[in-house]
Amino acid sequence: MKRLFLFLSLLILSKFSAQNWATEDQYIQKFAKYAVEEMEKYKIPASITLAQGLLETGGGQSRLAQEGKNHFGIKCKEDWTGKTMKHTDDAPNECFRVYDDPRQSYEDHSIFLSTRKYYANLFNLDMKDYKAWATGLKKAGYATNPRYASILIGKIEKYRLYEFDNTNSKEVLYAVLKMYPNLKDDRSFMAQLETEKYTKKPKQPVIVEVPYKQTSYAQQQKRVEKIKSRAEVLNSILIKSHPNDGLKYIVIPEDTKLEFIAKKFKISESKLVKWNELEGDVLHKNDIVFLESKNSDGNTATYKAEAGEDMHDIAQKFGIKLNKLYAKNRMDEGQKPSAGQLIYLIDRKPRN
């Protein structure tokens, strides 16, 4: 009798001390925040990101998610230089990316979508139209399953993930609590909510190198703050979509090294040099840098060169390969246009 009483007591206590959720509910509670953060940075609907994570990981239970922190099944590809693991997917022992933290996987997923040409049209869609995004992903070849779009939409509607498309990173935990009101009895979640409420979220630390210069402490501190603010500006660079067929590019806000951009966007320096026809490793403020290969043609027929512009400037402005631009205009490599010269961007310049 005493044993039965003890068993019942433990059962009752366990019910009040911990909340039992289905695996997919637990996944949403844990990773909705990451999906919303990525939505703010890359304009990808949080509902789509979260539904893809749910599907790819089986609610966080897949081997790739458990061992490799890889939540989106992203394979190594030729430009990946990080850790890897072998996993059987479409073929035996395929190479997959490994991350130190799931948050890295979420950001890499955003970069993967936003820097590849075949996903460019997605970013012309309404960010709150999850059905169009799901259909667009399937059309772009993200997955081989013919039902991929309908499966994503099913996940989104079953768990009301579209609610996260209407929130922000500061309010996302309240949205989770509204969706799962019984979380008010979960001490761990409520502690996290209280921490978010009363603690200002610290910025990611900015590590800078300050060259030594013999000067006063006050002057040196001013130099440190100036360099720190410059580094913060560089860390805030966002990917843009070019009018020329949606090519992905960035505008350099402050002078920096090519190495920094390569590391930030996980693209090799050699590819950036090739795609942008660069001659050095220093990038200057307002430089245009493409994150994929440029096109052979422009999106407009002609352009009048401005004073001081060279052909490389024009090639970057219109997203055209430099050698193609020279050929279209019957110019030698290195030849500069004159101010007001008509530059052909699609067809070849007629012979005189």
Automatic annotation (TrEMBL):
Pfam family for this entry, one: Glucosaminidase
Q: Which domain of life is it from?
A: Bacteria
Question: Where does the sequence pass through the membrane?
Answer: none
Occurrences of domain LysM (ranges): 301-345
Which residue positions does the secretion signal occupy? Answer: 1-22
Q: Does the keyword Mitochondrion apply?
A: no
Keywords in alphabetical order, please: Antimicrobial, Bacteriolytic enzyme, Hydrolase, Signal
Mind telling me what this protein is named?
A: Peptidoglycan hydrolase
What species was this sequence derived from? Chryseobacterium salviniae
